[in-house]
Amino acid sequence: MRHRRVADLMTPNAVTVQRGTLFREIARLLDEYDITAVPVVDDDGRPVGVVSEADLLRRQLSKAGAATAEAIMTSPAVVARPEWSVVEAARTMEQRKVKRLPVVDDAERLIGVISRSDLVQLFLRRDRAIQEEILEEVLTRTLGVSPSAVTVDVADGTVTLTGTLERKSLLPIAVRLCENVDGVIEVVDRLTYARDDATGYGGVPDATPARPGQPAPEPS
């Protein structure tokens, strides 16, 4: 189980401009491709900066003469790597106050662009896809829990876990792993446990469910 990578969500073959591209041409490209920024690359395809709508607006308000990408770009370019997790990309965008990141390979050449809107797509994952990942990756493969032991319901990104785990110590682990699944907004914990492995309490759950976070009652 892992977070999606930048390579999974980025837009390849991104629109780019050269250092000498003029203001009006940059504005036309942003409008034509419905994007908010464009990487500026050198002759080897390496990003040297980014021109955004905000950069264009500042230049327009300054009433300066014709300008090139090199004159108005924000430089150096803040870049991402294809192997980064989407969490790393989101954190970089937040820290550097940018909405798009050029993605570069080991030779620093541009191979794509990832934007905030790309990251938002994670939270539009189908509920069924989230449910399957939790059942197969989190519960079965990672925790070794039988699929029949826990019911996983997903509605609009909210995950509800209902059922009984063998040990109390597994409860917070299961919840935390589910929270880390891409697309999960919230986890509602209705899990119970059969054995308190911290105190040595033993018990076998019967048909009467215990309250969340409490041991299932022993059979009479």
Structural descriptors:
three-stranded antiparallel β-sheet; Histidine-containing Protein, Chain: A; 220 residues; CBS-domain
Task: Describe it.
Strand 7 and strand 8 (158-167) form a beta hairpin. This protein is elongated. A 3-stranded antiparallel sheet has the order 1-6-5. It has a 3-stranded mixed sheet with strand order 2-3-4. It has a 3-stranded mixed sheet with strand order 7-8-9, covered by helices on one side. It has helices spanning 6-9, 23-33, 53-61, 69-72, 86-96, 116-120, 127-142, 170-179, and strands at 11-12, 17-18, 37-41, 47-52, 100-104, 110-115, 150-155, 158-167, 186-195. It has 2 domains: 6-122, Roll (CBS-domain), CATH 3.10.580.10; 125-195, 2-Layer Sandwich (Histidine-containing Protein, Chain: A). With 220 residues, it is of the alpha/beta class.
Instruction: Give the tally of structural domains.
Output: 2
What is the name of the CATH topology of the largest domain? CBS-domain
Helical residue percent? 25-40%
Cα-based radius of gyration, to the nearest Å: 25 Å
Number of helical regions: 8
Structural class: alpha/beta
The fraction of residues in strands falls at 15-25%
Largest sheet: 3 strands, antiparallel
The order of strands across the largest sheet is 1-6-5
- Averaging pLDDT over every residue, what do you get? 87
Low-confidence runs: 201-209
| Full CATH superfamily name of the largest domain | CBS-domain
Task: Give the distance, in angstroms, between the N- and C-terminal Cα atoms.
Answer: 40 Å
Order of helices and strands: HEEHEEHHHEEHHEEHE
Task: Report the strand count.
Answer: 9
**What CATH first level of the largest domain would be assigned?**
Alpha Beta
